[in-house]
Amino acid sequence: MNRSSVRPARRTVRTAAALAAAALIAAGATACNDDDPAPAATASHPAGAPAAAASAAASSGTQGARTVQVGRTAWWGGLKFEVKSATYTPGANGDYQVVLDTAVTNTFRTTAVNYWPDLAIDLGGTPVTGDQGTAVPPVPGATNPLPITFRGVTDKSHPFAFDGASFVLGAPGTAQAVVPLGKGGRAAVSLKPVDLKLSGTSITSGRLTLDLKSAQVRADFGDGNGVTTLKPGQRAVLVLFDMKGAVGPAGMAVDGSVLRLKLPNGQEVGPTVAPIEAIYPDRPLRQDQAAWFVFSGATDGDYTFSVTDAPNAAAPVKLTGTGLADSGPLS
After folding, report:
1. How many Cβ atoms sit within 10 Å of the Cβ of residue 64?
2. pTM higher than 0.85 for the full model?
């Protein structure tokens, strides 16, 4: 896998007025797009709270602190977010904060992820931007706890509600993962990667041999360096392999022109990201190489990955995928 960094787009800070409008819209959301039961909520009320404080809370629209259990997972940009729970805490003057308790895993083997994706709670179509503090994404293969804080304002007529609220990863106009926090809101979209079954582990064309390690269909990102963000419905196939060459003294140059992917519908595409390497007799092996292929029209079925050292014939391997639609809508 190349060692470039994933660089999602910057988030946009929303004004307090936008947050208040979001709460107004969220309060009216009742339609349920999720088949799972509504998260269980727990409420807490401080013992011995003065009557004056209770009256002030009622006039400002605040409610007691409460927590809902979420228990969902979403992916974006190579990161896996396990969303455990969401806790609402009211302030004294109509302000509030919601904190998501999450655990985040860097799913890449060797690639650092240096930036977080856009993180927001969608309240009836208006995003409330999240704050992950000073935390940085985990190193490849690691899992770290990550509390994410969202701050807003409300009043008596427009209280905050988990029903209609959704945690969203990714910028508008790109593929977004969605985690409903209650009833209604946006439909759940995981963007979970789908592993492809390899029909073989080694292919050779002429001087080039590729030893395949794994292959996936990804809905969360289009390459390992942050250049290609997927649009809604698009997919990317990621193939990881070691590459070795039986070359003469002059060696050989290798780039993406030797790689192809044939889709189940017969369409053939070249890589959007691929190795650019020089192979020599004393350095014949290049490990942990990655090729990314971005396309629309993904379906379940057989994908064919091939390498060609012209004028030799292509060497193919079949990659079989099922359950692609479970990750999110397909274009």
Report:
1. 15
2. no
